[in-house]
Amino acid sequence: MRIQVNGESQEFATEVSLAELLAELSVPGDRVAIELNQKVVRRTEWTNVTLQENDKIEIVHFVGGGAVRERSARGL
CATH no. for residue 47? Predict the structure, then answer.
């Protein structure tokens, strides 16, 4: 079965669920969102959704952080 993950073609011998796909790709599921064929899939459904031939999956990783601005002596 051929699917597309983040724009790259992937081949699988058997059907896999979204949860199994993440495990197969060694992607921790706690800080990602998944879009299947341009629709966001809720985390609670990942084990229930079985991928089909030619599905397109986008896995988006959440990244924390950002710049911390120092306040000037005037409190701005």
Answer: 3.10.20.30
